[in-house]
Known about the structure:
Layout: H1 14-27, E1 35-36, H2 41-44, E2 52-53, E3 56-61, H3 67-82, E4 87-92, H4 99-104, E5 112-116, H5 120-131, E6 136-143, H6 148-158, E7 164-169, E8 188-195, E9 199-202, E10 206-209, E11 213-221, E12 227-232, E13 241-242
Parallel strand pairs: 3-7, 3-8, 4-5, 4-6, 6-7
Antiparallel strand pairs: 1-2, 8-11, 9-10, 11-12, 12-13
Helix pairs in contact: 5-6
Protein name: Damage-inducible protein
InterPro entries: ImuA, P-loop_NTPase
Amino acid sequence: MPKPKASPDRTPSPVLTTLxxxxxxxxxxxxxxxxxxxxxxxxxxxxxxxxxxMGALHEVSGDARGAVDGAAAALxxxxxxxxxxxxxxxxxxxxxxxxxxxxxxGLTPERLIYVEAGDEKSVLACCEEALRHRGLGAVVGEVSRxxxxxxxxxQLAAEGHxxxxxxxxxxxxxxxxVAFGQPTAAVTRWRVSPLPSAPLPVPGLGVGLxxxxxxxxxLRCKGGDPAVFDVEACDAKGRLxxxxxxxxxxLAVSDRAEHGHVRIAS
Length: 266
């Protein structure tokens, strides 16, 4: 009776193990402290590891069409930071951080450390120093320009620590947004644009506005592909939800209530 064949030895050779460690060291993936999932499979499966890499730099911007876009980008970053563990340092050059808005996205005042720096160079320096601190869950900096050198410094400072580095790109003028196309060391790059909210029937008032909606564009993802998602804005726990399509259709005359108010047709 022939002897059964022995199963092949699947233990990687020392040479392969060493090579993999060298590759991880070169691409910065060695020592990362897990991933922060969005909790939406449609988004998480697009991200290597099933979420945003901790110990890494991520970029967020608006669509450069005004203050509303900048606010949407900041709230998206706030929702991400809110789902981390620990204090969150938020560094700006302008005295315009709206705490109630951040709280609506899940980032409450008791978790927030606010730093107002004199210029963008100081913002980046504060972020780099804060990323080396073990007690923070996330570090957020608002700047208009981010050079490849500066982004590499932030990436290196974050690597190996369970902290999330977020840079929110803000522009005073639309033409300044051209700099967003320049390469950086960010692991992911996101663009957030507001979408029309779904109308809701409000008793006695007619039509009200539903939860804010955004278009999320994953413009760059290291180890992944670009993608676009329509979502409902962060709730009080920093969570997103996929947005259902908004259907617009004309209202019949019978749908117009008294006193000039309008109600949603059934």
